[in-house]
Design goal:
The protein is mainly alpha-helical. It has four helices and no strands.
Length: about 130
């Protein structure tokens, strides 16, 4: 399996992981639950996966394989990485029901950012 395929598969994992986290958060919100350690621990993995994705992307760029990728691809990737920490900063670490809703909404949006980044990456490869 080539590095491009690993990058593409990890992108799919990031998209699905964030979508699952967003849906989990919506379920927690509608059940009236607050933010707990299990959910917050899973949220912490989202930007870490994004950073791993970025590291592989930087390796691909160093190999000359990122030449045809539009700049917006990198911007969507950056949004995936900074979204969850931005919510934490915005909520100042609150763990109430409102914070759960905000995390859930942002993670669903982050999933969409990842999907859009994947689309722009595939465009560069000619898919």
């Amino acid at each position: 399996m080539g590095l491009i395929q690993i990058h593409a598969n990890l992108a799919t994992a990031v998209i699905l992981f964030n979508a699952i986290l967003g849906l989990w958060g919506m379920i927690k919100f509608f059940r009236g639950d607050s933010l707990d350690g299990n959910y917050l621990g899973a949220i912490v993995l989202s930007p870490i996966l994004g950073l791993v994705q970025m590291a592989i992307g930087l390796v691909l760029i160093s190999m000359g394989l990122g030449v045809n990728v539009r700049v917006v691809h990198y911007l969507y990737g950056a949004l995936v990485i900074i979204s969850a920490p931005a919510v934490f900063a915005f909520t100042r670490g609150r763990d109430d029901r409102g914070a759960v809703l905000l995390y859930a909404a942002v993670l669903l949006l982050t999933s969409a950012f990842g999907l859009r980044a994947q689309m722009t990456g595939y465009e560069a490869l000619g898919f």
